[in-house]
């Protein structure tokens, strides 16, 4: 699977270089400036806090506590690992396992992260379809059919979550279905959970879209936001596809979307490069979280000086403290 992802990413980038040359990639790197990076860092702080908030809500619904500070630090670490390592999800796997070890339930920790990510992607899909229905975009003619399919999928998920099987079937599939339904009811669809999850997810999508709009403006795209927002949403969906450190499908989708919108594929590639650099820099606090955690693990435990008294080994008393 890793080799397939690497091959697909290399193929996409190779086709773009073959068709467009290296100039769009170099232009994107040259146009990145301090203002764009500062904006990306601020928006990343907003989206990271919202992701941590959403994760904490889902985890609490599944019966495990998660302090907000620890959640924010873990989400920053996850963001950095996702953009620094192949796959785009290794950071999320790491935070799920780490949280599971802290709570002595790795399975539940991984499920909390999986449901949190799924909830975010579901809200993103709904927002994307709604906005693409009302705003002009290259895919607008196909959106009514996509919207109908999305409504059907949401209905199936809601029915599955509310279903309460009476018997305890012996099959593994039946057990998995019951466990998933319990997780959905407790973690996502609980009365106090789903409104906050929707709000947090919408803010995350808004933050990512704003980052892309800034990247497009930095790369020289002069189209108005009403024309750029649908393209940003399409690119964000493409960025969720299997990738290597975020690269590959994002550049391909951006090139196609910009070309279809009449803005030019080279400008799209340059925008994708600017966006990738902004995301990488915005995730650097996660590297600091990793370094701090490593330093704490590597710090030796304080040594206790011992002495022998009467044939027994006892801790030596600090200076100035009299013997009993």
TrEMBL record:
<protein>
    <submittedName>
        <fullName>Flippase-like domain-containing protein</fullName>
    </submittedName>
</protein>
<feature type="transmembrane region" description="Helical">
    <location>
        <begin position="118"/>
        <end position="135"/>
    </location>
</feature>
<dbReference type="GO" id="GO:0005886">
    <property type="term" value="C:plasma membrane"/>
</dbReference>
<feature type="transmembrane region" description="Helical">
    <location>
        <begin position="228"/>
        <end position="248"/>
    </location>
</feature>
<keyword id="KW-1003">Cell membrane</keyword>
<feature type="transmembrane region" description="Helical">
    <location>
        <begin position="268"/>
        <end position="295"/>
    </location>
</feature>
<keyword id="KW-1133">Transmembrane helix</keyword>
<keyword id="KW-0812">Transmembrane</keyword>
<keyword id="KW-0472">Membrane</keyword>
<feature type="transmembrane region" description="Helical">
    <location>
        <begin position="193"/>
        <end position="216"/>
    </location>
</feature>
<dbReference type="InterPro" id="IPR022791">
    <property type="entry name" value="L-PG_synthase/AglD"/>
</dbReference>
<dbReference type="Pfam" id="PF03706">
    <property type="entry name" value="LPG_synthase_TM"/>
</dbReference>
<feature type="transmembrane region" description="Helical">
    <location>
        <begin position="142"/>
        <end position="163"/>
    </location>
</feature>
<feature type="transmembrane region" description="Helical">
    <location>
        <begin position="37"/>
        <end position="55"/>
    </location>
</feature>
